[in-house]
Amino acid sequence: MFGRKKSKAVGPDKTYFNVGIISVNELDDDQYEVWTDDLMDAADNVGSTTSLLQADWDNEQLKILIKRFPEVEMNETVFMINEIIQEDIKKEIKLLEQNHKWKKFFNTIPLTDYIDAEDRVVMDASKTLFCTNDVQEAMNFLEKQAAKTDI
User: Fold this and answer.
1) Domain containing residue 142
2) From which domain of life does this come (predicted)?
């Protein structure tokens, strides 16, 4: 799994989204970069993107996504859009640190554990706002969301 984050400063009233790109087969780095560039250029509300293989994703999360979005073909690349809620990320990180108190005390919790905690929040299928197989539809959704918050 790999991801990209926008380097823009976060505005206080701005809603940012994570776009999860879930592929059946290994995703080519060039294709991932093209999609993320297109998504981030379409609207200024994409805070991060995450790419992962369907086989590496939690089965329960996949079942939730299939149940919530039955029209999406799961044997193709899927674009799922979730709101980035900083409070939820902070809660997940706090839980991580509580479960590893000694590692926290000695400052030895690996960075990957923090990244995984953030990914669990921003890739939560039960909170997915929009899901599609078409990158253009995902871009349109993000543009509409950006227009709502730019008022």
Assistant:
1) 2-84+125-149
2) Bacteria
